[in-house]
Structure formats: C-alpha cells, structure tokens
Amino acid sequence: MNRSTLKLALLSTTLVAGMADAQDATLIIESWRNDDLTLWQDKIIPAFEAENPGIKVKFTPSAPAEYNAVLNSKLDAGSAGDLITCRPFDASLALYQAGHLSDLSDLDAMSNFSDVAKSAWQTDDGSATFCVPMASVIHGFIYNKDAFEELGIEVPTTEAEFFAALDKIKEDGSYIPMAMGTNDQWEAATMGYNNIGPNYWKGEEGRLALIKGEQKLTDEAWVAPYATLARWGAYLGDGYEAQTYPDSQNIFTLGRAAIYPAGSWEISGFNTQATFEMGAFKPPVQNAGDTCYISDHTDIGIGMNTASSNPEAARTFLAWVASPAFAEIFGNALPGFFPLSKTPVALEDPLAKEFASWRDQCESTIRSTYQILSRGTPNLENDTWGASVAAIKGTATPEELGQKLQAGLASWYEPQQ
Amino acid sequence: MNKARIRWHILVFLAPAVIVYTAVMIFPLFNTLRLALYTRIEQERVFAGLDNFRTLFFDPIWAEQFWNALGNNFWFFLVHMLVQNPIGIALAALLSHPRLRFAALYRSAIFIPTILSFVIVGFAWKLILSPIWGIAPSMLDAVGLKSLFAPWLGKEEYALTTLALISVWQFVGIPMMLIYAALLTIPEEILEAGEVDGITGMSAFWKIKLPLILPSIGIISILTFVGNFNAFDLIYAAQGALAGPDFSTDILGTFMYRTFFGFQLQLGDPHMGSAIAGAMFAIILLGVCIYLFGIQTRMRRYQL
C-alpha cells in the first residue's frame, strides 16, 4: 500500500516535470562576458522571450581568463550549456572538429553576414560555418577630454603628436600620461602591439603575408611596433610593472590618467564609472596623411552545442541572434561591441559612434596572431604577450624579440620555415 | 583440521576506505599516468609510448619551460625551508615558554592565515603590495623608507621570492603547531635533570629540546616538500596561469595547468599535461623516498 503510493507519487512528479519540459525549453548560454550579465538578463533575454514564448534562456558566464578551460572540461564531461559563446578562430574550430559545435551553414539568417565576418568561425576551406557572428571590437585610445582641455592638448593624429602630448602631460604632472600595466601581460599585446601595429604592417596586407610566409616577424614592419612600445614605458604610472588590468581601468575612470590604450569593449563600463567627458582617437599614423589601419577584431560569435537537448529551440535563438532586431538591441545595449550584420545599426552612444566612424576612414584588419598562427607550440599569441611586456619594460631589444618570436613560429609553421 | 578461518570482518571494515580511496585517488592517479603515454593525432587518441616525456625533457621549447618551472619550484621550497620552518620552530619555542602571557591568543593569531583561502590571501597581498592602492608603499613612506619600495610582484627578480614569503606568512602556523605539540610532550623531569647538571636557558633548547623534536622537524620538512611541489593555487590566484612576469613565477603546477587545460589561444593538451603531472609525481615520490629511506631510518629516536 505504502509502496504503491510512493510509486504513484514518483510517477506523477516525473510526468509533471516532463510536461513542464515540453512547454518550456530552457536554453543555457555559456559565455566569458561576466561583465554583461545584467544586460543579458534585463534587455537581451526578455526581448527574445517576449517574441518566443515557450523558450526560457539563462546566461551563465564564467571569468574570461578561465572560460576556455572551464568550457572544454564541461563539454568533455557533457555538462555544458546549449549555446556556446565562441572565441574567434582556432579555439572554436577545435571545438567544431571535436564534434562539440554544430554546423550552422544551413541557417537561413547566415546570409545577413559578410564573408569577413564569418571567417572567424569557419573551417579553413570555408565549407562549414559553426558560429553566428555577434560582434567585433575596435582598438584605439580613450582620453580624458577635461584633462586635454585643461592642458590645452589637441587630439593627436600622428605619432610625433602623440608623444608630444604624452610629454606635455608628464611635464605638467597632474595626470599620469597613460594608464596601462604589465602585470596581466595581455593588455601590452592586445591594447599595445595589436593596437598600434596595423599602421606598421599595413593591416590585412601584412597579416596575410605573414600567414603565407612572405613576411617574417623579424621584418621592419613587425619589429618597429616593439620599438614604439619601448617608448611607452616612460609614460606609464609608477610601479606599472605590478599594475593589473582592473587597476588601469580604475586609474583612468577615477580621472588620474589622461590616456587609456583601449578596446571598444571598455565603453559601457567606462560610461558608468567615469564622471568626466571621454573622447577617443585612433592609433596615430607615422606621417600626416598616411592611410590609417585599425584593428576591428571579430571577437564574439555564438554556436550550438551538439549535445543540446533542445536543438530546435537553440536554432530559433541563433536565428534571432542573426537577425537585425538582435543587432539593434545588442549594439546599443553593449556600446563598444559592434554588430557584424550587413544591415547598418544606428548607434546612440557618442563614444561608440566615434569608434565605429573609423571603419569609414581607415582600413580594417583583425589581430595578427589570431588566425592560424597560434595553432602550434610555442603559442604565438601567448609569446606576443611576453614580448610586448618585455618591450615596454626594456628587458629585451625589439630586434631580439622579433628573432625570438620568428624562431618560435618557424619551429612549427611550415610556410615560415 | 587447523584450517585458517578467513577473517571477514577485516575485509568488511577495510572495504569502505579502500573503495573510496581507490575511486577518488588511486584510479585517477594511474589513469593520468596512462594518459601521458598517448597523444592525439587528427581527433584519434593513439599510443605514443614515452614520446611525450621525450618532448618534455629534450625538445628545447618544452625543456626550457620545464627546467624553469622546476628551478622555480626548488627556490620556492628553499625559501620555505629557510624561512618558514626556522620561524615556526622559534615561535613554538617562544610559545611553550611557561611564563609567556596570552600564549593562546598569539597561537590563534598566527595560525589563522592557514585557514584562509588561497584566493583571499593572494588577493589581499596583491592589494597590500599594490604600488597604486596598497598600504605597503605608504607604510614605508611613513618611516622614510619609500625608496625601498618596488612593485615586487611585477619584477622578474623579486616576484617569486615575494610569493614564497606570502606563502610562508600563510603557512607558518603549521610547523609552529606541530613543533609546539612536540615540545609539550617533553617531560619536565628531563629538563629538571638538565638543570641539575647546569644546562639552562638557551642551551637547554639546543641540547635537550631540539634533539627531541628532530623527528617532528623531519615530518615538517617532508610536508613542506610535498606541499610546495604540488603548489599552484597561490601563484594562479596572484599571477594568473601565465605566471608572469615573463614566467618568473612559473612552477610545475601552473605549467601543468596551462598545458592541460590550455590558455587563451593555446589549446589544452591533456596528454602533455599528464606527462608533466607524471613528472611532478615522480619528483615528489623521489623526494619522499630519499627522506624515508635516507634520513628517517637513520634518525636517532629517544624513548621518553
């Protein structure tokens, strides 16, 4: 008697649970953008759920530095979410090849994206696309407008003007000329080397030549940015060697520094933190009138876990992500992440508009180390972090760094041998 | 008819511990060692014999990182042996002094950091030593020694030693407690007999107490060795997986983590990672064996 009651109870709960499942498919999104949690919860997810009743979405980010390790372990263990936020290039390609990401080439909405936008999430031959491109980030410098006005500095466009401005700020002494540290290493490479570098190696031209093996990392175009970075050291704050990334962000938003070498992803955070007016300028060119090149890096995509228990709902979500409606919400909810869809999106944030306007004035490229070149050991991207730090600290000469990087790359990359 | 009875109760009582220990320790350990013998080619796992170890020890790129990490590990251990353990012993000797007041308070205060999480310790010390917000520069400034301050965690030459000293600060309570307990077991009569023979004060410590606590010091040394060569958390919490600046704080634990799970654009390689884990296991095993057979068996013990 007792036992059959229990059975009945168990049976009914499973049935109820099963029915709830049928009504509400829950999608879980894996992401490294823990900064954007509230934006997803307050703006993006409600907009989707309003249009698609019956699908619930949960955004569960982890810390950026741990994301890849955490995600890989979860995928191998079969406990990862339905939707996977994709890092560009090899990290996601490896997941596709290992069978963790579904082929999305047949998704209709994929036609909303240009080939360049899709290239970060395609197989080398371009036959399969496995993530929907979401956004790119643009590099440049954000500056404190009040500080520039106070010191009477014009926005620099050439390198000479840039260093003259830094000298002037340093001389005055009331602001730290530039807010950047070398403790976390990646800023030196991402906001340093890959920010100013495209002007030297002429954007895509140099990047593709490096992949083909026609240029080497010991060439002038690839070594010269290190020489410029070496001059930065003098303008960073006291003890910059132990200054972390959040330290730099805080120093700038507290108004203690005048210039911040930036990625556009900082915009939303800075808007809420800083009390002064901010402006942005693109990486200065060597001589006035030179063509300018900017790093407009395809940074975020989103794909589907092959092990998802709700593939239909997941595809519905991805189709929505690929639609102009999403681009509009995303571009404005997260100023600084620029949607990649072909339909132009009207941006409202002035700082984001400034960054986006460079796309019309300059040639766009992506970070030099991301496509193909960081596939082997030693890892070129990680080595570039160390090299950029060494350049700023002055512990190695630009030529030595070029030789070391070239030797590392040539040790496994055939076109460079 | 003298058939030996199988003593089932022994098996039954041992079983839970053996099963749990095998499932969570022994099996993963040997599986990791097995994983080190494979490699992945085109999505297929293939047996590679000792190739991974050959790469680790002889490929210039891998070997440089491995020896760098191992060297750093030895320095990390050396700092603990030279700073943590002597201070622990000295503190224990002070605490066991019968006329010391508030001994219980000091004991707890010194032991508390040991129970803190690595993440908290790493973060707190990073803030203390921060050149921007930290109290270390202003404290030095207050006594006129500002010129001595450097961004220690960001300098190649100081970072590892700084982290080792932070770890010493955190764990000095452990040798202190163990030695303190050993000192308490020394009977008063022996010390009194020494006093009759004219051995008092410092010489009582050197001639009577120290020889009696040597076995405890041996245990502490081996615990320090195992703990330091398995260390990972503090470095990861304070410096991240790249163990900057320029790998100067890279120890075997962070090297293994970076290789096994991957980092940023570097993809994880569980097989090379397991090879490093295997090397760590061998080093620790060797160290423990040297201690057990070389030192502990020769140590003279006194019956109290």
From TrEMBL, chain A:
This protein's record includes keyword Signal: yes
Entries under InterPro entries matching the protein: Bact_solute-bd_prot1, SBP, SBP_1_CS
Location of this chain's protein in the cell: Periplasm
Keyword line: Signal, Transport
Classification via Pfam families: SBP_bac_1
Signal peptide: 1-22
Chief location bin: periplasm
Annotated SUPFAM superfamilies: Periplasmic binding protein-like II
PROSITE patterns: SBP_BACTERIAL_1
Family: Belongs to the bacterial solute-binding protein 1 family.
Stated role: Part of a binding-protein-dependent transport system for a sugar.
Record protein name field: Probable sugar-binding periplasmic protein
Organism, as annotated: Ruegeria aquimaris
UniProtKB/TrEMBL annotation, chain B:
Primary location: membrane
Source organism superkingdom: Bacteria
Domain ABC transmembrane type-1 per the UniProt entry, residue ranges: 70-293
InterPro entries in UniProt: ABC_transporter_permease, MetI-like, MetI-like_sf
Keywords noted in UniProt: Cell membrane, Membrane, Transmembrane, Transmembrane helix, Transport
Membrane topology classification: Multi-pass membrane protein
Residues that span the membrane, as ranges: 12-30, 74-96, 108-128, 158-183, 212-232, 275-294
Compartmental location: Cell membrane
Family: Belongs to the binding-protein-dependent transport system permease family.
Cross-referenced PANTHER family: ABC TRANSPORTER PERMEASE PROTEIN, INNER MEMBRANE ABC TRANSPORTER PERMEASE PROTEIN YCJO
Annotated protein name in UniProt: Sugar ABC transporter permease
Species the sequence originates in: Ruegeria aquimaris
